[in-house]
User: Fold this.
Amino acid sequence: MNMAKGDHYEVKDMSLAAQGKNNLELAELNMGALMEVKKRFKKEKPLKGVRIGMALHVTKETGILVRTLLAGGADVYITGCNPLSTQDDVAAALAKEGVKVWGYKGENNEDYYRYIKYVIEAKPHITIDDGCDLVSEIHKNHPKLIKGIICGCEETTTGIIRLQAMAKAKALKYPMIAVNDNKTKHLVDNFYGTGQSSIDGILRATNLLYAGKTFVVCGYGSCGKGLADRARGLGANVVVTEVDNFCALQAHYDGFRVMKLADAVKIGDIFCTVTGNKHVIRVEHMKKMKNGAILSNSGHFDIELELSRLNKVADSKRRVRPFMDEYVLKGKKIFVLGEGRLVNLSAAEGHPSEVMSTSFCGQALACEYGVKNKGKMPVGVVQLPGEIDDTIAGLQLKAMGIEIDEMTAEQKRYMDTWEEGT
Assistant:
């Protein structure tokens, strides 16, 4: 592939920059909370002299985060965190602005890790990751850089799972701030964002009617809850599969049918995995599915569907729509969307800008927190203080023009005492 290359970028086509600029403007319009952070950062420069290396989805929303960090004085280097999630017009627009950016939609494995290496070669003081590939590469192949790293920030559930595994194995060597675990992130990004954008991706890939279909959601964490809720809103009959007792119980009380995946595969029309685990839907399940069943994934990696084996045992495979592959398995057709990668980003545009505003407030404020607490944070997975999460919620309320009450002095005193009772 002939790429557009420069000293500070490698993108698909620089002629797309004008459209990318328009999309960045539209994103800014709907990211009022992050704009408040950017305004303060521009004035205070809390990240002056800090090199930030990023492996995030290169979308219009991420572009606004990049601008926010630059406004705070940081030197920013960015590449993608998924081969199908980069928006080429946005990458071109950022490159034209002078941002150090590498990425294109449809990256092969070689380019994906070459671009991550470019970010690593900048010797970042802070890493921002979505899925933990950047952090993993640094630990495995560039350990000498670790002593110069202040902290990292992780965006997604899959990344946190990997980080916790690293910490358990005593392999994690610098503090990682779990931005994903902010309450605002779980609520707005995971629940509302993943719910809506995954539905959007499946619709764009297939143009199918949801009403009356049996929609199987594998995993009932924050993302699965949002997806199940939105599928039901479109008239689907939702089935949930789970391995966690509490999550399964909640799904049942929320009004969804809960069953083993081995039973769900016999009745499902559309399947979507949101577990953060590996080989959730396997070939053994696919063989029991209806003719015409649709498989998708909204977890970070493409391994939730056992495609490696499917590609070996399928009778045939062909692309029938841009993000829809038909597999024939023992004479029966099943369809896989977005090559099994994040369907909301491979077949659609990811979360709406308003959603990512709160998530990226978390990233920007986590970077500031890391700089302020350099050398004070423990090595491991670190939570942001609750007051920062509360600040993010307040910024979003302000952006939406919503005012809330305040406690009176008497009420504040009451909340701080224990003597007053019946």
In short: Residues 24 and 60 are 5 Å apart (CA to CA). The radius of gyration is 22 Å. The chain has a mean pLDDT of 97.
